[in-house]
Amino acid sequence: MKEITRKMLMKYQPRYVRYMCANVINRFGDAVDSLATVWLTYEVTGSASMSALAYACNMLPTVILTPLLGAYVEKLNKKKVMVLVDFMRACLVCLYLFLYVSGVLDVATILILTILTSSVEALGQPAISTFVTEILDKAYYEVGVGTNRALMSAMELVGNALAGIILATFGIAGAFIVDGCTFVVAGLLKLIIPYQQRIHEKHANTPYLTMLKDGFVYLRKSKVLLTLCFVGWFLNAALVPFNSVLAPYIGTYLNGNPIFLSLVSIGISAGAMLGGFLYPTISKKIATNMQFAIAGMCAALLYFSFSMVAVLRLPLCGSIALLFIFIFMMGIAVSIASSIANITFISRVDPDYLSRSSALTDAFFYGGMPITSFGVSIIVASLSIPQVFFIFGCICLVCFGIILHNKTLKGETSDVNTTETTV
Q1: Phi-psi region of 2 (alpha: psi -120 to 50; beta: other; left: phi over 0)
Q2: Could you give the C-alpha distances from 42 to 50, 210, 244, 246, in angstroms and in order?
Q3: Taking a C-beta distance cutoff of 8 angstroms, is the pair 373, 59 a contact?
Q4: CB 30 within 8 A of CB 159
Q5: What does pTM read for this prediction?
Q6: Are 18 and 167 in contact (CB under 8 A)?
Q7: Crossing angle of helices 246-253/288-312, nearest 10°?
């Protein structure tokens, strides 16, 4: 069989190319918005503990609502769902901007808006996997997913590079305006993608609770998906301290401002971009369990480097340079791990169960994040951030060994048995 190239992807998969363009625009806005929101939360509260709590509130709707919405979205037009989500998020950004400019934005309001935004995202997430399989031929999965990951990371890199400048020049309000505009443009791009949903007649008259239960049964019978759930749970939870208290760390130990926050974030985006481009080649040479294990080891090295910089009190430029190297490595590892998880999922799951399985696995993937974030918000009240980073680095090393010896992920993954999934 002729090797699939990115040139062939661009030429023969025009609908997916449009989808990637919409994702790229979304990601630029998200990159600016995420940095602005993190900095705003720390600016309003001045507390590392509250930053971690806000991060937990962002994850909770994904864990609680996504599994329930998956069975509902299974019956809907996936493109319309995704477009609706983009427009709803644009409206929420406008509300955020209005409250901020009015000067009434406080801690409680930030937490409420965070939960609302995450709830809207939970509606759109189950539609994505199904939509991709309906506009992208299976032969293009590896190249398509890897290219999409690389392009989004590249745009995130641009967003992170500009975020500090935008925050310093136009303030938080300017960042929100950029974010709102990107959601509108991305929604319009998705709206013009030619799309005809695959009609599953057996879904039309199936009660919601039956579809929900069938989704759980399907997941329970798949060892590969269950293993992916727990590996994803660990890898996402392992990154919580880094994501939730990054701004307080920079403010305390690097005498930082939004520019430094932007510089640190660029490393992950650059690494993720390279990882996305390398994935089609690496996936042929490194076993699945080893790819996940390397991601865990990189997380451990990342935490140890942050602890070391804080303890040694290195010159500012040297600290940023050292952290950038380890963050870059982490970006590569996370990108590759995410790509292999996506490929395994969309290539092994029965199309009739994609939205439900996606919702359930996403809930598992992010399930450890609110718990860990709540724990971090408590721990940082009594321990320093470098101490917390060191503890999580040790935990990552232990889990790295467990993943490395996992037999389910070694070699080729087996197809999911879809013959007995209904109750």
Answers
A1: beta
A2: 8, 44, 10, 10
A3: yes
A4: yes
A5: 0.76
A6: no
A7: 30
pLDDT in tens, 251-287: 778 776 556 666 777 788 788 888 888 887 787 777 7
Residue 166 one-letter amino acid: I
Go through the chain and tell me how many residues it has. Answer: 423
What would the pLDDT profile of 82-141 be if each residue is shown by its tens digit? 999 999 999 998 998 898 888 888 888 888 888 898 899 888 888 888 898 889 998 888
Rounded Cα gap, residues 15 and 132, in angstroms = 10
Domain 6-404 part of CATH 3.10.310.10: no
Residue 269 one-letter amino acid: S
φ, ψ dihedrals at 104, nearest 5°: -110, 10
